[in-house]
Specification:
Order of helices and strands: HHEEHH
Strand order of the largest sheet: 1-2
Mean pLDDT: 90
Largest sheet: 2 strands, antiparallel
Number of helices: 4
Low-confidence stretches: none
Structural class: mainly alpha
Helix content: 40-55%
Distance between the termini: 9 Å
Radius of gyration: 13 Å
Strand content: 5-15%
Length: 71
């Protein structure tokens, strides 16, 4: 958790199921293909995809994710 501000991301092993990760990746692929989101920062980050996908928004607001923010 302490590296989140430094790295700009957090890895939560086994937080999401394989099918959830697959659906997120598929959704991201579609958003990139349609131009709704773009890679930023040396082609490494996609910012604010949750504003373009209800599914990604639901994952971002899932208790498994938000509970980490309460730490």
């Amino acid at each position: 958790l302490k590296n989140w501000p430094l790295n700009g991301y957090l890895i939560l092993p086994q937080c999401l199921s394989t099918s959830e990760v697959d659906k997120i990746n598929s959704t991201i692929d579609t958003l990139v293909e349609t131009g709704e989101v773009q890679f930023r920062y040396n082609q490494r980050k996609i910012m604010f995809a949750m504003h373009h996908s209800e599914y990604i928004k639901s994952i971002a607001n899932d208790r498994r994710i938000t509970s980490v923010m309460e730490y």
